[in-house]
Amino acid sequence: PGCSLPLPSESKCAYVIILMALLWCMEALPLAVTAFFPLILFPMMAIMDASEVSVEYLNDTNILFIGGLLMAIAVEHWNLHKRIALRVLLFIGVKPALLFLGFMIVTAFLSMWISNTATTAMMVPIAHAVLEQLHRAPEQKDREAGSVNISFELQEPNYPITEKEPQKLCEKDSSPVPPSVPLDYHQKEREHLKISQGMSLGVCYAASIGGIATLTGTTPNLVLQGQVNSIFPDNPSVVNFASWFGFAFPTMIILLLLSWIWLQLLFLGFNFRKNFSCGDKTLEQERAAYQVIQAEHKKLGPMSFAEKAVTFLFFLLVVLWFTREPGFFPGWGNVAFPNHKGESMLSDGTVAFFLSMILFIIPSEFPGFSQQQGTQGKLKAPAALLNWNTVNKKMPWNIVFLLGGGFALARGSEVSGLSEWLGNKLTPLQSIPSPAIVFILCLLVAVFTECTSNVATTTLFLPILASMAQAICLNPLYVMLPCTMSSSLAFMLPVATPPNAIVFSFGQLKVCDMARAGFLLNIIGVLTITLAVNTWGYPIFQLDHFPDWAQSNITTSCNVYNQFNTSFIDP
Fold first, then answer.
1. How far apart are CA 79 and CA 430, in angstroms?
2. What is the 3-state secondary structure (H, E, C) of 435-448?
3. How do the residues of the chain divide into helix, strand and coil, expressed in percent and rounded to 5?
4. Considering the entire predicted model, what is its pTM?
5. What is the full DSSP assignment across 42-86?
6. Measured between alpha carbons, how far is 31 from 401 in angstroms, rounded to an integer?
7. d(CA 403, CA 57)
8. C-alpha dihedral over 258, 263, 268, 271, to 10 degrees?
9. Alpha-carbon torsion 427, 428, 431, 437, what sign?
10. pLDDT by residue (tens digit) across 325-341?
11. How far apart are CA 130 and CA 417, in angstroms?
């Protein structure tokens, strides 16, 4: 209906953004379907040509996303992620607090490279199997000693344990419980439930936190790279794998440790000696839990040729990403493939696709021919490390289109003049201290991402933040970086992110449990990110000045401004 109205292009673009924001929040249509609206409405409203809009749906950032996922699919296909997880858990041990830490470290590490959802779906069953052994071992011992009423024990787990049950046990006339049940039975059940809840939340939170660390770890990070390249085409690849990792990895480590401490205090209590089993011998249930992990690891057998090949290609990919154009020294991309400015002509997406294509060439068995029984004289070549059927089943094509829709929106905002208009309206923010601006914006994004997709959140916010930064002469990355990371702080609601929904589906958590744990963790996350961008973020992205590449589409010069004089450190 807005196509025929005699409105300026800024208003028409704003109409498209508001329409898509409402559809994304309400999910009246699939997110990927809504992402196609710019492809239809921008040409009809004379904002952009159809050919210009179409290019945004498969740009370099989307190529990086697909290439990185191809490698991640190969890792999942050969169960390499499960082998890594079990090996780390065997190394850390099964003491209560260390078990929490072990599962969170493994989940966070895997989420750096593969899908947060896939990591959570793999880790939660392993965690519950280990916890069942921790719970069953003492029960089995009590049953053999005759101290537990078996008939009651079989019925009790069918009912949730509440906080009011100990009071019922103390009442005189309200107890149908058999006298043979020990009074500490309910206490053990409550402890097991709390540990299970804490472990489940630890896994889903670690998946979201771990995705922050790498550029390909979660989709909002790639949205940032694409938006920066689209809005500021003159930037010298300022957001790349190496620069993002240098900024985000320390932030992830701090946030992961703080979340572990918070969950430990909330679900395990303050008993340091009990949580770490200091000075105690290994308990029977701990040995049983360790044996579960050991048995799962043994089922995998020795590493196959395919696993070794995928491991080598994976590490090679990471090394090439880090050294292509690191910034603080000439990378191999600058030396071997320079353009007229001395910058690398290859991108991270080029490297990802090159090594991913090799996955379709290298055989999954040791090079040679295998001969099956009953087929004498017939030789059969082994399958490749990766095949297209597997890719087609596991590739989230909807995210590719969702990313493209976001890039098209950003480009349309710039072309229509909406970005400049918004920037002019936000100039009063210039009087607010820079760290306060970052904290408020991060808190706003963290609240918004609880209600809608983190990809949609970053897609809607980043163009506005870029315009605001230009208007008040802030380095755009100073607000875009922390707000992108804050979009991953979806800790309070089951619908906020797929990892939350996965752990909630196991039935041991209530919404209030997740909200209680996630509320403080959101605050901790916002404070940690604000600290990060005001400390080590400065030298990595040169946030102490307004860059030349950010002045390409504004009329006034910002070289004389410096809004960082109230930050946490001296630039």
1. 52
2. HHHHHHHHHHHHHH
3. 65, 0, 30
4. 0.80
5. HHHTTSS-HHHHHHGGG-HHHHHHHHHHHHHHHHHHTTHHHHHHH
6. 9
7. 7
8. 20
9. negative
10. 876 678 898 888 888 87
11. 57
